[in-house]
Amino acid sequence: MTVFASLEWLDDVADARRAAGLRRTLHPRTPAPDIVDLASNDYLGLVRHPEVLAAATAALRRWGGGATGSRLVTGTTSEHELLERELAEFTGAESGLVFASGYAANLGAVTALADRDTLIVSDAGCHASLVDACRLARARVQIAPHADVDFVRTALATRTERRALVLTDSVFSADGDLAPLPQLHAACRAHDALLLVDEAHGVGVRGEGGRGLVHEAGLAGEPDVVVTATLSKSLASQGGVVLADARVRAHLIDAARTFIFDTGLAPAAVGAARGALRVLRDEPHRARAVLERAADLARITGVATPTSAVVSVVLGDPQVAFDAAQACRSRGVHVGCFRPPSVPEGTSRLRLTARANLDADELAHIDDVLTDVLSGARA
């Protein structure tokens, strides 16, 4: 094999990652896995629901395999516009705009709403998509210590920029804890700032019937609150959405580069999300069931009862966490393994995600496996 000096540094990086227990590999799953899934974000257990599959199939047959172009050219169908209206109505927002992914929704919203005369205050625990959006926005950025409202308030009060944008997850993906949304919104309202909340892990789990933490906090439809969300978790599909004041939607159509220059979301994905949303509206108990199953997983693993679908079991050392995840997988339980840079140094962990449709037999198997694996990992 020809060796190119310009790529030799990649070998050194790979060796360093391997030594630190941070090397990552892909593990393709089978269509009908014989393993209990605690690693995916299929919180409501809808990814194979008959109504979701039927809606995806109907959209596929009607519109074809792809969107065929950007949303501004040929990539918008009536299916897209129906989904936008339905999501807005469900979450209590004035309007919605669908993107090709949740990542693209965050990048597009932040970079379109911020410029060089904007201060961005971003929670230290925000998702990587919001971190990258800050880097691309060309605004001054201050990173707030996690859930530190006083820091946010001071940053907004002392800014010199004309505009300000505060970024937070509603449910933080690594720990599963909740953002102090009422307090953050009060700080934003007092200092004329927009609050952007990523509800990726909130929709389908928190709020009345799974309407999200923003709705639960009484902030749905507020003109100074912008909500982003993904369709790939509770809604069993893929894609992203921005839910906001109609003026924000109009501005994003004009200015959000990840909307203007990206191919629209595939019709089958749009149909699947609409089908999942119908199921959630008809069966709101699924949102409660997610939190009940999360409490079961917390009891099994000996951690505090969570306030979301995420159960985080911190083990510290990345290799210990990786080995524990592999041991679980070998015994029929698939769990997530979060290591730096996804989490801070020294906090590598198993990340378990609850599903509304976990049954008694699955929970008993999880109990057997996790109790045994964790006793060794924690020794």
Secondary structure layout:
Blueprint: H1 8-19, E1 36-38, H2 50-63, H3 78-91, E2 95-99, H4 102-113, E3 118-123, H5 128-136, E4 140-144, H6 149-157, E5 163-169, H7 181-190, E6 194-198, H8 213-216, E7 225-230, E8 240-244, H9 246-255, H10 257-260, H11 267-282, H12 285-301, E9 310-316, H13 318-330, E10 333-338, E11 348-353, H14 360-377
Parallel strand pairs: 1-10, 3-4, 3-5, 5-6, 6-7
Antiparallel strand pairs: 2-8, 7-8, 9-11, 10-11
Helix pairs in contact: 2-11, 3-11, 4-5, 4-9, 6-7, 12-14, 13-14
Protein described:
By secondary structure, the chain is α/β, with parallel strands linked by helices. The chain has 14 helices and eleven strands. The protein has helices at 8-19, 50-63, 78-91, 102-113, 128-136, 149-157, 181-190, 213-216, 246-255, 257-260, 267-282, 285-301, 318-330, 360-377, and strands at 36-38, 95-99, 118-123, 140-144, 163-169, 194-198, 225-230, 240-244, 310-316, 333-338, 348-353. Helix 5 (128-136) links the parallel strand 3 and strand 4 (140-144). Helix 13 (318-330) packs antiparallel against helix 14 (360-377). It is globular, with a radius of gyration of 21 Å. The protein starts with 7 loop residues before the first helix and ends with a helix. The model has no long low-confidence stretch (mean pLDDT 96). It is an enzyme of class 2 (transferase). GO terms for molecular function: 8-amino-7-oxononanoate synthase activity. It catalyses: 6-carboxyhexanoyl-[ACP] + L-alanine + H(+) = (8S)-8-amino-7-oxononanoate + holo-[ACP] + CO2. It comes from Rhodococcus indonesiensis.
